[in-house]
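User: For my dataset I need records formatted as: sequence, then structure tokens, nothing else. Please produce one.
Assistant:
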Amino acid sequence: MMINIPQVKVGIVAVSRDCFPESLSVNRRKALIDAYEKKYDVQDIYECPICIVESEIHMLQALEDIKKAGCNALAVYLGNFGPEIAETLLAKNFDGPVMYIAAAEESGDNLVQGRGDAYCGMLNASYNLKLRNVRAYIPEYPVGTAEECADMIHEFLPVARAVIGLRSLKIISFGPRPLNFLACNAPIKQLYNLGVEIEENSELDLFEAFHKHAGDERIPDVVKDMEKELGAGNKKPEILAKLAQYELTLLDWVEAHKGCCEYVAIAGKCWPAFQTQFGFVPCYVNSRLTGRGIPVSCEVDIYGALSEFIGTCVSQDAVTLLDINNSVPADLYKEEIEGKFPYGLRETFMGFHCGNTCSRKLSFCEMKYQLIMARALPEEVTQGTLEGDIIPGDITFYRLQSTADCRLRAYVAQGEVLPAATKSFGGVGIFAIPEMGRFYRHVLIEKNYPHHGAVAFGHFGKALYEVFKYIGVEVEEIGFNQPKGMRYPGENPFS
């Protein structure tokens, strides 16, 4: 069960210009509601029955009604041309994400009294939204039949869920980033611009809280749950009690420090001193919390945690955070990929982290020790990773980042994890993204992104792209894996 994400209820408010038949908006709204209820969950929406909005007074009445109904998102439906002032004041005065859609004409036999001109009205609506500096979601083609508009509202849900979540999110971090991790810099100004709260704590604060949980009576139950999850992969049973103690420490910290926010993500410390002082690595606990909807990023990656939370809201599923880690060896490519999948060698790479990926997103899993850390430390203090190959299937690789000079930037790339054995260690998978080589050079390197990327399990590029636009990322700052023949601005035309 995914916790820690909003439930969206969209209030549908129809508008009408007073020189057009109000019945057009009334009947078209009814058809829209009927179409939605036939295909989707009726609890997602609320039909505002009080009025068709023609004036500012109607606008206030509609807002009051949907507020009482518990709506936290709004769909403004142009059943006809629409009143450009009142309909955009709806968005200005509503405290939540808003979308605009418009009714298509139904029949060539009814284009006199039955013509609504919402196709034209949508232009005026968008113009007035810009005049008022009001952000709204407008679908790629926002004019449609009742069934098409119902689909548009359903596609709005993940966008709205992420926007609502960000407005009541607190990111809790522990410790500064490890040495030589300047790439995961986190200017906090843009967090505040997004409405996100940040609470930065010392590792000593966490260490103290952990020790206070020694002997916690809940530890045995958490250990049992871990044993059930790990099954035959429980290769380090002696470390489970400490991991359970740490999990309870984090969960109690979240409840005690959530404050005025509803949702939480954690940016945790995991090295270099964590292992020697706590006596384990936190990877498995991170995986468990992320699997329940509380993202935990590695290496105090604050914008990584933020990105994970956005993906959790959009996908309503566990996400993970991975290093864009290593190239696929040519011999492995020839053995496992060439001729079997439509990707060249440079379109593949390995995504890896020590063991923070949720168990249900791994083809198999085992509790192990962290090999890289164990090269310099006693093996017994590096236990706690959840290792295994990541499940094959569709993925979206993405990240939201603030640059060092506090500009928001993002990327989105869809691809897949291939059903090929990695022959490696950690939580790892062979990823394939069309034109990855060019994307790697002209987005990830050119735009100075860190090595951490968030992974959502499925193709969610469309929704993530709209989320980034809605929260204020300039379109030219949203990178994607451009197809062959579409040149990046910095790409050498002679290469």
